[in-house]
Design a protein that fits this description.
Blueprint lengths: L4 H17 L11 E5 L13 E5 H12 L8 H18 L1
Antiparallel strand pairs: 1-2
Helix pairs in contact: 2-3
Length: 94
Amino acid sequence: MNIKIDDLKQVFDLMIEKLNHDKAIEIELDIDFYWQIAADDWNVENEEPEIIVGSLIDDWEGLHNCINKKEILSYTEFDKCASILRAISEKQVQ
């Protein structure tokens, strides 16, 4: 599978448009800890994935530090963003 960066940007823009359309100014996430499969075990070909605990608070703090230029954005922040988006999805679907 190949993903064009411009297409990915359009998907993110559509997600923000969706939140704006729903008049979402702020989203309250009432959970912190979540289960996550370790990156090395993410491929379904592994028999027994290692399950680790993630923290939405830590994830958001790391992303926010990138906004404030306290940290340099790395690909680790993609995982953090994915966790935040997953939590938003679960919250909004309920």
